[in-house]
Amino acid sequence: MDKEMQKEGGMQKLLEMIISSPGQGSVLEKLDKKIRKLERVTLYGMLEQIRGRVDFPIDLYKYIPQVGRIRPAILRFRLPKWHHYDEVFWRALGDYVILALRSVKDIEFVKGTAKLKIEYFATRKRPKSAAEITEIVRGLACLIDTEVLSTDFTHFRRMAERRGSLGEMKKEEAALFGVAIEMAASFVRT
Q1: 163-167 long-range CB contacts below 8 Å, 24 or more apart?
Q2: What pLDDT shows up at residue 80?
Q3: Is 118 part of a structural domain of the chain?
Q4: Is the pLDDT of residue 11 over 70?
């Protein structure tokens, strides 16, 4: 009985935190942001483990610095090893770059020439130099290439799907939402 009440209390605390905290989007989107924050911490831990030990070819061939809040920084990379890789790998890389950097305005790739373009806004809280971003992209590409990171992309595919509300959810989505709340509640308890 105590565990059940503790579980309900944790869920209540989690929901109150999500509902009462300022932010844009629905409760589901706020929950997604909290989960992505936890995923980002895990991702940076993985990148930290391989830092300095990655010999993965990547070339930053063009860098245009950010101009305040007017124009994002533009970084253009060549990933020669990924020449003609399937779109699923490029989309996964884009997804992980968005997760890692957060304030990405746009990502484009050309798989035939193995080129990647990132438009990124640095902020005072999380400024990243071109060298840091290069190392992040290098690490992510290496982790995807060695199958440490999954290639099941979601961000690109879900952009249109995010417009739905909680009331419009399918059974599968509602079940996933329940699992996500359970996972988040377990993080709150620990």
Answers
A1: 165/26, 166/26, 166/27, 166/28
A2: 95
A3: yes
A4: no
- Is 43 a member of any domain? yes
Residue 84, sorted as left (phi over 0), alpha (psi -120 to 50) or beta, turns out to be left
Answer whether 31's CB lies under 8 Å from 176's CB: no
Q: Are residues 38 and 79 in the same domain?
A: no
**Domain region containing 128:** 54-155
Is residue 13, in this structure, part of any structural domain at all?
Answer: no
Q: Are 31 and 169 in contact (CB under 8 A)?
A: no
Q: Taking a C-beta distance cutoff of 8 angstroms, is the pair 77, 90 a contact?
A: no
To 5 degrees, how large is the angle CA 118–CA 127–CA 72?
A: 40
Residue 8 lies in a domain: no
The verdict on 109 and 90 lying in the same domain is yes
pLDDT in tens, 131-163: 999 999 999 999 999 999 988 755 554 443 444
Task: Return the pLDDT at 184.
Answer: 67
**Prediction pTM value:** 0.70
Burial of 94 (0-12, 13-18, 19+ CB in 10 A): buried
Looking at per-residue pLDDT, the higher value among 81 and 1 belongs to 81
> What DSSP designation does 71 have?
B
